Every structure is written in C-alpha cells, then in structure tokens.
UniProtKB/TrEMBL annotation:
It comes from Compostimonas suwonensis. This is LysR substrate binding domain-containing protein. Residues 10-106, 112-169 form the LysR substrate-binding domain. Residues 206-258 are annotated as: Disordered. GO terms for cellular component: protein-DNA complex. The lineage of its organism: Bacteria, Bacillati, Actinomycetota, Actinomycetes, Micrococcales. Belongs to the LysR transcriptional regulatory family. CDD domains: PBP2_LTTR_aromatics_like. InterPro entries: LysR_subst-bd. The keyword DNA-binding applies. It holds the Pfam family LysR_substrate. Keywords: DNA-binding, Transcription, Transcription regulation. One of its GO terms (molecular function) is DNA binding.
Amino acid sequence: MSIDPVQPALRVAFVHGVTPAKWARIWSARRPDAALQLIPGDESGQLTALLDGRAELAFVRLPVEREGLHLITLYEETPVVVVPKDHAIAAVDAVTFEDLAHENRIDGSHALETLVELVAAGTGVIVVPQSIARLHARKDLTYRPVSDAPTTTIALAWRTARDGQDAADATEVGRDTAAHDVGRDTAAHDVERYIEEFVGIVRGRTERSTRGADAGAPEKPVKRTAAAKKAAAERRAAAARGGPKKPGAPRGKGSRRR
C-alpha cells in the first residue's frame, strides 16, 4: 500500500475498529500508480475528515447524519463486554444484559484508552463492538458476547455534493491559464473515477467488472433461470401422471390403433 501524505490520489478515513487493510491491498494491486492515504479517526469525529474535504470516502459506524451522503452498509459488529481475566464473566461463553445488572457499567464518554485502563483497574466493565475490544486487547483483559445487545453496523460513506464542490473549485481557479484549468478538470474527473472504483472494490466487484456491466447483466440469467424452473415443474407434473407421453402417441378421440 502506498501512502503519500502530500499528493494522494484517494483519501479514505476510517473509524477505530475498522481494518481497511484488505481493501487497501486490493486497491494497491489494481492501482499501483494511484496512492491511497488512510486517515484514522475516533467515533465522535468519524465524519470530520469527509465533511471538511480531507477525505473522499469514510468507513463509519452507524448511526451518522445521512444528509448529503451516499451510504452502503457493509457488515454487523457483535457487541461484547470487556472484563478483567479473573472476573466471573470470563468463565462463561456469553452473557445477557440481565447478567450485567449488578456490574458497574463505566461511562462511555471517556476516551477508549481510558475506558480500557479503568476496566483493567477493576473499576467496572464496558460494552463495545468486538472490533474495538480486539483493537485494545491486553493480556489482563478478556471479553464475551452480549447476546441480547443490539449490533452495530459499519458502512462506507461519501458525499453526494462532490459535483457542486468540484464546480466551485473550477470557478475558483478561473483566473488560471487554460492549461491549468484542463489539469484541474482532469484531476477532478480522476477523483470521481477513483471513488467509483474503490466503492466497487468494497462491494466485491472483480477487476474486469464495471458498474454498467453489473447493471445490465442480470436480464438474461434471470430469464434462463425462470425457464429452467418451468421445465423442472413440467417434468415433475409429467412424472406424477405416470411419465411423459411418448412422441407419436395417439391424442384425442379421432385417433385409432393400427
């Protein structure tokens, strides 16, 4: 993965707990000429880099303010309770909120590092997404799933207003030379193309597939599948009647045996 803080081709922010390395590796393999910059952030400011223009895309933990954003949901995170290794909860496979009724649930307003330190000190327990527990794993702590806690969702977000912003940028540099304007327009087009390609990677598109191909491809396979189902139904019906009629078998009242 190429990370260039000065001139990245594409900048992707991600909230703590998300590991974008898989997608970054695929990007680097397909786009070795286009540097990718990854920008980590905490949950309280997970949209900041995207909204202030420091990133073109962001992996976020829902819920977030959706206005002005494209969002695709990616996966669910399992909630877990983090406890010291010698805690009674460490002896079971999973717990419920009822099991935690008498535990001191530490206020989540602290920084994650602080929360982990408080749990290790025996002050209380915390319930967090499993990805967060893994990120802050320690030898003196463990975690167990909370079976009746709501899951959290990770999504990929990018701005819907990029076209308007790019137009404003073009006006801003209108005093520059024509050659410079052409260069800026080309760069803006490249960024839009890179966004589309990265979204495709996250959605699992192969290197050969395109948005257009994905949109148009389903028609014929759907028809073939329907035809196959109809043929199978006809075969089952014929079998129930005693088997299919042989070619040339007499039909109707006017037929005679010879």
